[in-house]
Amino acid sequence: MSKFWEKEFTCPFCGTKFKKKMVFFDSIKIKARDIDLKPVFEDVNPMFYEVVTCPNCYFSAFDKDFETITIKGEETERKLKKLLEEAKKKVELKNVENHVEAIKRYALSGMVYSVLNQRKKVAISYLKIAWLFRELGKSEEEKRYLERALKEFESHYKYDYYEESDEPMILFYLGVLNQILGNRKEAARWYELLLRKYDGKSLYAKVGRERWQELRRS
């Protein structure tokens, strides 16, 4: 049985129609998770397919919201146009699925979400880049993007509106990214806030309690 299918997308920025390879959900098998809940996949790596990039203008976003994005205002449109034109000059995309190409696409989605002031998705884009570098064994690059993801999560938590249902995830990543980066006091502070507000109510709080205990023992 095939693990892949093709989906047609229409770019919300330039209107180009194109098809992209997608992964059937049933083909995704997780055999373990890292400290920050990064999945270790058994076979197909869905991170290679999650970002949709328009082949014409390079507009990039996660597949779940690619076509639903609304670009509001002439200033935002102008910034995006400039950003994507520069990206096309500097970045060569190949029609293959591997770590290098996925990193390029997540970098593009991070830049697009930044212009759209969607900091949570900027943070997730950077986190996924860090995970891809981890799979490649490139620790310095991984650390750099973990730091970028942490900065975006911090800004998102402090300055943006977010759904209450998102808060446990945000607090968890504020804790675990600080823990990975060696910021023990900051990690403990965020874990304690997560547990105070959501202990027993969220999977993130359950995992956060385990990480907090590991932090205290280490």
TrEMBL record:
UniProt xrefs under InterPro entries: DUF2225, TPR-like_helical_dom_sf
Gene3D superfamilies: Tetratricopeptide repeat domain
Domain of life: Bacteria
The name this protein goes by in its record: DUF2225 domain-containing protein
Organism: Thermotoga maritima (strain ATCC 43589 / DSM 3109 / JCM 10099 / NBRC 100826 / MSB8)
Phylogenetic classification of the source organism: Bacteria, Thermotogati, Thermotogota, Thermotogae, Thermotogales
